[in-house]
Amino acid sequence: xxxxxxxxxxxxxxxxxxxxxxxxxxxxxxxxxxxxxxxxDGSSGEDTRRNAASSNDEPGEEVVIGFSGPEADxxxxxxxxxxxxxxxxxxxxxxxxxxxxxxDPSTQISHIETFINDGVDAIVLLPTDGAALTQVATEAMEAxxxxxxxxxxxxxxxxxxxxxxxxxxxxxxxxxEYACGLVQEHGLGGDAxxxxxxxxxxxxxxxxxxxxxxxxxxxxxxxxxxxxAAEFTVESGEAAASNLLQARDSIDIVWNHDDDQGVGVMxxxxxxxxxxxxxxxxxxxxxxxxxxxxxxxxxxxxYPATQAADGIKLARLIAQQRGLSDLVQVEVPRRIVLDAxxxxxxxxxxxxxxxxxx
Length: 358
Description:
- By secondary structure, the protein is α/β, with parallel strands linked by helices.
- It has helices at residues 5-11, 75-89, 105-118, 130-142, 168-185, 204-218, 234-247, 259-272, 286-294, 307-319, 348-351; strands at 23-26, 63-68, 94-98, 122-125, 147-150, 162-165, 194-198, 226-229, 253-256, 278-283, 299-302, 335-338, 342-343.
- The protein has a 7-stranded mixed beta sheet with strand order 1-12-6-5-4-2-3, with helices on both faces.
- α4 (130-142) links the parallel β4 and β5 (147-150).
- The longest helix has 18 residues, at 168-185.
- The chain is elongated.
- Residues 1-53 have low confidence and may be disordered.
């Protein structure tokens, strides 16, 4: 997007509201020894499993971790895979076995069954469908192989030793709070026109993002005036954004849920010659961050592509029967929800290295 003088004046503003880039961790109890790969021989009351006095990155016993995720047909998913493999390569005590990505639940189930038969020490799984993969994940747990569930939850908490999630509702809240800050800063008033370009409406994650956005806007007396849905693809993003622009002659703020589909959204803006609004993105692509640097975008809200990489780190500790050295309760938590920080011109340099290519 080339950006007119008026556009540049509007987007080059310091962030009024950003969320701390912190890890929100909630522990929901500790799994029984039968699913934590511990051996109970009754020989001693001394707990030798906890090794929180030393750095978690110090080498431990060698472990084999199986990793399975969907097909990388989306920039964010490709980053999920690459970050996971790069993280595993950092540890000399980890052998990572990567199943070929697939969008077919039955194929992914067979991959997990292979990991079980091979007797891997832990499994990190981003399921194509959480409900469809619940049973085979449970079978792995019952076989004594801890499972780390990433991004898409199983239908039974017992199917995973640990679950790592992005904060979809929090992502919407962050975008909405930032939009409220723009309304206040620029005196847009109660008649501000706010638009939303969602992802797939059938997905709970999309519903959560929209709910968070609406809830945050309500806090400053605003609401969503126009909402369209895309499908997390470039083509659908362009089509949805084109429909939105045809419906409104003037818009103050646009929030797009996904920076991959944002490539198409930006193309629609360019084709229509429209740049009168503040543009907020979602997910944290490198494209979006470069647009922020260039003054073509106001902000983007991170949905971490590091979730599987974090899963590798935690699977390694669980398989080695170690805990987290930075926690007083040293056991690896049962549930971890990652933060949704807002990236602006003020902090884009910090986040750009973690941006994924669309």
